[in-house]
Write a structure and sequence with these properties.
The chain has 302 residues and is mainly α. Helix content is 71%, strand content 0%.
Length: 302
């Protein structure tokens, strides 16, 4: 089955009718607030609507599981690094406000004082950071994938060009930048399919990408990277020839067949995300003064 990451999935529905410029703002909103949020609940509030939207658009669970593999791998690596770098003193400093408060039971329950100084210990601080990294990266990947799955490349190019309109006052060729970004997004699924094809061809020649030592795997993957680069340059050359034969001139003034217009659906979606951003912003700024103690201490991202 072909990967849906970065690929437009033809269809009709609510998410397809949202203005592509608003979709880009929503992706920026998710990236910013996913990394600014202080509590796991905030990350889940951001992630759950994305999961529902993606399940409605794709109607399959397997692509979501595939997209979770990369952030899961990253979080496991960070967890192992934190085990080697976070010591007992670091944990004590990170949770000093917990120890100084009345909730000493929380420290004894979650962080039993049994490890000696400079001893390598598995702490929930390391687990906290790893889970936070997984939720943030997965949210970012899911938001960008939903953008490309529900937006046609031509409309995405037009949206990027419209959003960069103020840069035209500085005589920056925004139409060229928008075309470059659109082509780069369009080539992501093409290169993924090409890499799968090359891996199957090399495996039929006896190259093993999964087993063996690290040196053997590096040599095996070199047989994938080099043909992939050659194929990428060949496809880029073919694309440039096709654009030239169709009369594409990047610096000439272009007419517009479609003009993007905001609708009442876009207004409702914008108001929803303004409210969501206000709620999470208040949690970040003054959440400790009105949120439950379990929310602000047990579910805090450190």
């Amino acid at each position: 089955m072909k990967s849906v990451f970065g690929r437009y999935v033809p269809g009709k529905g609510f998410f397809y009718n949202i203005d592509p410029r608003l979709k880009i703002f929503i992706v920026i909103f998710y990236v910013v607030f996913a990394f600014l949020s202080k509590y796991f609940i905030d990350n889940l509030i951001l992630l759950i609507p994305l999961l529902i939207a993606y399940a409605v658009v794709i109607r399959k669970i397997r692509p979501i599981v595939k997209m979770a593999k990369f952030p899961l791998f990253m979080s496991i690596v960070i967890f192992l690094i934190n085990i080697l770098t976070i010591k007992v003193d670091d944990v004590a400093k990170a949770f000093e406000h917990v120890m100084s408060s009345e909730n000493v039971w929380f420290w004894k329950l979650v962080y039993p004082n049994s490890a000696t100084q400079d001893q390598i210990v598995i702490t929930t601080l390391a687990l906290n950071r790893s889970i936070a990294l997984f939720l943030r990266v997965f949210t970012m990947i899911l938001a960008t994938t939903l953008l490309t799955n529900t937006t046609r490349p031509i409309l995405l190019t037009k949206a990027i060009e419209d959003l960069m309109l103020p840069l035209k006052l500085l005589f920056i060729p925004t139409q060229i930048i928008a075309m470059i970004i659109s082509i780069a997004l369009r080539f992501i699924p093409t290169l993924l399919d090409e890499s799968q094809r090359i891996m199957k061809a090399q495996s039929s020649r006896g190259i093993d990408f999964k087993n063996g030592k690290l040196k053997d795997k590096a040599i095996a993957f070199s047989t994938l990277i080099i043909p992939l680069f050659v194929s990428s340059f060949a496809k880029a050359d073919d694309l440039s020839d096709a654009m030239q034969t169709r009369g594409y001139e990047p610096y000439s003034k272009r007419t517009k067949y479609r003009n993007l217009k905001l609708s009442w659906i876009d207004l409702g979606v914008a108001l929803f995300f303004i409210g969501l951003g206000t709620f999470i912003g208040l949690n970040i700024a003054i959440g400790e003064s009105f949120l439950p103690i379990v929310w602000t201490q047990v579910l805090t991202i450190y």
